[in-house]
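Most newcomers find our protein records easier to grasp once they have seen one. Each record describes a single protein and holds just a pair of labelled lines. A learned vocabulary of local backbone shapes supplies the integers on the structure line. Nothing more is needed to start thinking about how sequence determines fold. The record below serves as our worked example for the rest of this section.
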Amino acid sequence: MSYSYPLDETWTKEEIIDVVNFFSLVERTYEDGILRDELLLAYERFKQIVPSKSEEKQLGAQFEKDFGYSSYRAVQKAKAASPGEKIKM
């Protein structure tokens, strides 16, 4: 299967890897479940790369359109969970 995550061509290789990691963890949240802390750590790094709320919303909307998974809802669920808790959408 070919994946095409929403990316910005101005990002460095490391930034692209970190954004792809965040989106893949969102996928895992939906498919298998993931530890809350792991997702929030990846989201924190994602926000360092994408500090703009509007850009975050655009990337999230594109990801949801392409994959059917909401990064926003996954992060909100993680924020509401207790430290160390496994979350699954």
About this structure: The mean pLDDT is 92.
